[in-house]
Amino acid sequence: LLTAISIERCVSILCPLWYRCHRPQRLSAVVCALFWALSIAFIAAVTSLCLSHEHEHCRVALISMYVLNFTIFAPPMVISNVILFVKVLCGSRRRQPKRLYIVIFLTVLFFLIFVVPLSIWNFLQQFNYTAVPSQVVFLLACINSSINPFIYFLVGSYRRRCSLVSLQVAFRRVFEE
């Protein structure tokens, strides 16, 4: 979903007129459904191969899954967020970047920092290579799981006179945009 959201935000910034006037209404739903279907099909295949106790087929399936993640899902997410970041930085200085763009950028940034190491670690495990202990990468993944509410809170209360804004108000401000 982060990939689909990132691509959609990038298109909305690069082609705002087309996005508002000509984008098919159900495009987001279709893209998300396709990503989900691809993921579910691939995970089902990997699971069935790994449950059949054929170690070599399982290993090849897992390697293929990680390669799919690194070639299909991660690059569009990274590229669209770099474009988003550059556009927001180089855009109009009069306007502050929209909170939603900041939330998406921070969510993807922390995902890349905290979750990608786990995927890389799992990939390298298939070749019996261990660079860091498993506890480190699992801790990073756990941090990512709990950091999003803090992102929403901080962005929602950003530049307000009262810095102690309730979490509910912060969420409402972020998602109003």
From TrEMBL:
Its main location: membrane. SUPFAM superfamilies: Family A G protein-coupled receptor-like. Residues 1-152 form the G-protein coupled receptors family 1 profile domain. Signal peptide: none annotated. It holds the Pfam family 7tm_1. Keywords: Cell membrane, G-protein coupled receptor, Membrane, Receptor, Transducer, Transmembrane, Transmembrane helix. The keyword Glycoprotein does not apply. The keyword Transmembrane helix applies. GO terms for cellular component: plasma membrane. It is a multi-pass membrane protein. InterPro entries: GPCR_Rhodpsn, GPCR_Rhodpsn_7TM, MRGPCRFAMILY. It comes from the Eukaryota. One of its GO terms (molecular function) is G protein-coupled receptor activity. The chain crosses the membrane at residues 27-46, 66-88, 100-124, 136-155. It is found in: Cell membrane. Belongs to the G-protein coupled receptor 1 family. Mas subfamily. This is Mas-related G-protein coupled receptor member H.
